[in-house]
Amino acid sequence: TQLLEQSPQFLSIQEGENLTVYCNSSSVFSSLQWYRQEPGEGPVLLVTVVTGGEVKKLKRLTFQFGDARKDSSLHITAAQPGDTGLYLCAGESNFGNEKLTFGTGTRLTIIP
Amino acid sequence: SAVISQKPSRDICQRGTSLTIQCQVDSQVTMMFWYRQQPGQSLTLIATANQGSEATYESGFVIDKFPISRPNLTFSTLTVSNMSPEDSSIYLCSAAWTATYEQYFGPGTRLTVT
Q1: What is the largest CA-CA distance in chain A?
Q2: How do the pLDDT tens digits run along chain B, 114 residues long?
Q3: How do A106-111 and A10-14 pair as beta strands?
Q4: Taking burial as the number of CB atoms within 10 A of a residue's CB, which of A80, B49, B100, B114 is the most buried?
């Protein structure tokens, strides 16, 4: 069974601060995705990383895929209240299989 | 991307009864999935809904408890049968295309079993 452990599980910080969320596994993934979910809604895809060592930036969000494709991180710069939500990483183990293994989740709260 | 809708958005049901959840996608998709999520927690895959054939269930989930239909490329249903309070959860459907590996989710169905 493949497991994706996220840390921290909960994070509450002041608006304007920076933060990093980690997603770690002992398994190799062909791709890794990050989602954000708000209460009462389904997860919304933020980014997909495919290549080991890949870095993608989405405005204030920076995503990195580990060289060995076993881990990933999400860094948010100058956090805003709109960043509040449940962040989920999800790995695809077999390219093209589309079946995802979801991480344990990080609940982020940005305090105005 | 795709727009995915689910019905009902929420329901309160008595134990022993069954509820069927519908998932509609606004375009044809290759893959559809059903997940379960406890509020504030991660997602657990129940099954892959296969068009024209039986669904593929994950370990711990069986067809008798969670029968799934997928009559075409835009629609699927999940039935939660003989419900117990332990089935109280959020049920989410998602869709994906073969050419990509990104999933798009519906808003979820919040089920409470009393």
Answers
A1: 41
A2: 789 999 999 999 999 999 999 999 999 998 899 999 998 889 999 999 988 889 999 999 999 999 999 999 999 999 999 999 999 999 999 998 865 568 899 999 999 999
A3: parallel
A4: B49
